Amino acid sequence: xxxxFGTLSIALSGLSVSQQELExxxxxxANANTAGYSREVPLAEAGPPIVLGSLALGTGVVLEHIxxxxxxxxxxxxxxxxxxxxxxxxxxxxxxxxxSGFSSSTTGIGADITNFFNSVQQLSPDPINLSLRQSVLxxxxxxxxxxxxxxxxxxxQRSNLDQNVVEDVGQINALTSEIxxxxxxxxxxQNTNEDTGTLVDQQTSLIRQLSxxxxxxxxxxxxxxxxxxxxxxxxxxxxxQSFALxxxxxxDATEHVMxxxxxxxxxxxxxxxxxxxxxxxxxxxxxxxxxxxxAAGLANAVNAANAQGYDLTGAQGTNIFTAPSGIAGAxxxxxxxxxxxxxIAASSDGTTGSNGNLANLSAVASAPVANGQTxxxxxxxxxxxxxxxxxxISADADASAQILQQLEDQRGSISGxxxxxxxxxxxxxxxxxxxxxxxxxxxxxxxxxxxxLGMDVAES
Amino acid sequence: xxxxxxxxxxxxxxxxxxELEQQEVTLQISSGRSVNxxxxxxxxxxxxVENNDEMQFTASDLQNLSTIHGRxxxxxxVLSSMQTALQQAISLGVEGANGTVSSxxxxxxxxxxxxxxxxxxxxxxxxxxxxxxxxxxxTGQPPYVPNSADPSGVTYNGNNDVNxxxxxxxxxxxxxxxxxxxxxxxxxxxxxxxxxxxxALQSNNGIETAxxxxxxxxxxxxxxxVFYGNAMDQITSQTTYLNAVKLxxxxxxxxxxxxxxxxxxxxxxxxxxxTQAAIEAISKMEQNGSLFNYLS
Lengths: 460, 296
Hints:
The structure holds two protein chains of two kinds. Helices cover 59% and strands 11% of the residues of chain A. Chain A has helices spanning 3-30, 72-100, 108-123, 130-191, 197-211, 271-307, 330-333, 358-363, 375-415, 419-451; strands at residues 40-46, 50-52, 55-57, 61-68, 216-222, 225-230, 235-238, 241-242, 246-249, 255-259, 262-263. Chain B has a domain at 51-247: CATH 1.20.1330.10. Chain B has a two-stranded antiparallel ribbon with strand order 1-2. The two termini of chain B are 29 Å apart. Chains A and B meet through helix 2, helix 3, helix 9 and helix 10 of A and helix 1, helix 2, strand 2 and strand 5 of B.
C-alpha cells in the first residue's frame, strides 16, 4: 500500500501531465498560422500499476508521447502536385509573354504581310507612280522590322530564362543542403529518443519548397532518414549529405544543368526548372524556327519574283530583301536591300508602264513559301499553335491548382490547428489540473491530520 | 469527419478567381474584343489574321476599281470624240467625192480634214494622270508622232502590251488597249484611211475608195469601243459584289472577335456578385471567431 504520499505522487503526475498537455495546446495555438506545421496531440497513458495481492493500484499518468499528426502519403501527393503545378505555371507565364507578341490581327507580322502584298496590288493600276512604289518599300521595311523585333524579343526572353535556370539551380542547392542538415538533427534526436515532430515539419516544408523547383522524389531510408532524388534518379540528398547541382554553358550557348559531370538538363520533368527549360529549349526555339522559315521563304520568293521583271530604268530586277544566308536567324537578319523605289521590277517587258511582273510579286502571297504554306497561312498557323499551347497549359494549370487546393484542404483536415478544438482541450486540461490540485490540497489536509494525530487539539 | 480549420486559402482563391474573371470581362468591354490574346480563342485568333487580310485586299480591290474606272471612262470618251471626228471626216469625204465641188471648196475640205487629222492624233495622245492611254505599256511618251514620210502620216511609238489589274481573287481586268490595235492596225488604221482620203482629195483620185476605207476603219473603231463599255459594266458589278463582301467580312470579324456587350455586362455583374460574396465570407469568418471568444 502506497499511503498518502502515493496519492500525492499520483496527483502530482496529473498536475504535470495536464501542464504538459496545456503546453502542447499552447504550442498548437501559437503555430496555428505557421506554414507546414502539423498539429500535435499529447498521448497520455496510465502509469504501470502496483499489484498488491488481488489489487492493482494505479500510479498516476505518464505523458508517453507527443504526436505530430500528418499523413505521409498525402505529403507525397502534395509534393507531386506542387511539382506539376509549378511546372505548368512557369510555362504559362512565359507562354503568355511569347503570345503577347502575336496577339493583334491588325498590327504585327501578319498585318505586315497583308500590307506588303496589298501595296503591290495598289501599285498595279499605276506602276510608274513613285509614291505608290515607295509604299511597297515602306511596307517591306515594316515587315522586316517586325520580324526583327519578334525574333529579338524571343531571344531576349530566352536569355532571361537562361538566368532563371542558374537561379533555380542555386535555390535547389540551398534547399538540399538545408534538408540534409535537418536530417542530421532528426537522426541525432532520434538517437536520444526525443520528439522530432517539429523538425520533420520543417523538413517536409523544405521538401515542398524544393518540389516547386524540381521533380524530387522522397525515399524513406528507415530510422527517420530520407534520401531525395529527381525522378530520373539524380541524387540530391542522402541522409545528412547533399549533392549540389551545377550549371555549365553548353555548346548551344545555353546553361545546362549538371549533376557532377552528367548533363541532366533533359531528364528533369517537374517543377519550375523543368518548365523554364521546356520553354527555353522547346517552345521558343519552335516559334523562332517558324518565324525564320517564314522570313527566309518569303524573302527568297519575293526576290525571285522581282528578278523576273524590270525596274523603272529597264534593268532586270534585283533583290528587294537581302538574300537570307539560311533558315536559322533569317527573321532576325531580314532587311530591305533597296532604298530606291524605282528598283521595284513592276514591268514584265522592260517598258516603264508595264505592270506585268507585279502579278508575279502578288503571286508570292498565294505561293507555298514556308512548310508548304502561303506566307499568311504560315503566320496564322503560328498564331493558332501558340494560342492552343497557351490555352491548353492554362487549362491544365487551372485544374492543377484545384487539385492542389483540394490536397491542401485534406492536409488541413488532418494536420491543421483548429482553435475550437484547442479551446475545448484547454477547458479539459484546465479542469483536470484543477481537480489534481484539489487532490493535492486534500492530501495535504489529511497529512496535517495525520501529523497532529494523538496531540492535544490546540485550544482556540 | 474533421474539416479543414483553415478555409481562408480556399476563399482567397475564389476571390482571386472572380476578380480575374472581372478583369477579363472589363478588358473585353473596354477593348470591344473578345479575343485579346491568341489563347482566348486560338482558332478565332488565326481566322482574324486571315479576315484582316481579306478586308484589306477587298478595300484595295475597291480602290483599284475606282482608279481604273476613271482611266477607262476617260479612254471611252476619247473613243467617242474620235468617232464623232471620223463621222465628220466621212461626211467631208462624201462631199468631196461629189464631182460638182469647186477646187477651192475641195481645198477647204482638205484643210478641214487636216484639222481632223491633228485632232485625232491629239486624241490618241490623251493622257490620264500622267499616263498616255493608248501607247500599250509605253505610258511615258505620246504614242503617236506626226510623220509625213509614213503613209499613215504618223509613227506609233508604243507597243502592243496590255496591263491587267487584279480586282478580286483571281479576277483581273485589262485596263488599256494599245493604239496599235485600236487606231493603227495595218488593215483598219484610221490614220492611214484618213491620210489616204486627204491624198485622194488632193490628187482628186480614188476619193470614193478612200471614203469606203475610212468608213470601215471607223466601224472597226466603233466595234472596239464595246471593250470599254464591257469593262465599265464589269467594274460596276464587281464594285457591288465587293461592297457586299466587305460587309460580310466586317460581320465575320465581329462574330469572331467582337464582344456581345449585353452578355459581357451580365457576366461582369455576376463576377461582381461572386467577388462580393467571397469578401463577405472572409469578413464573416473573422466575426465568428472561435470558441476562444466565448471562454472567460
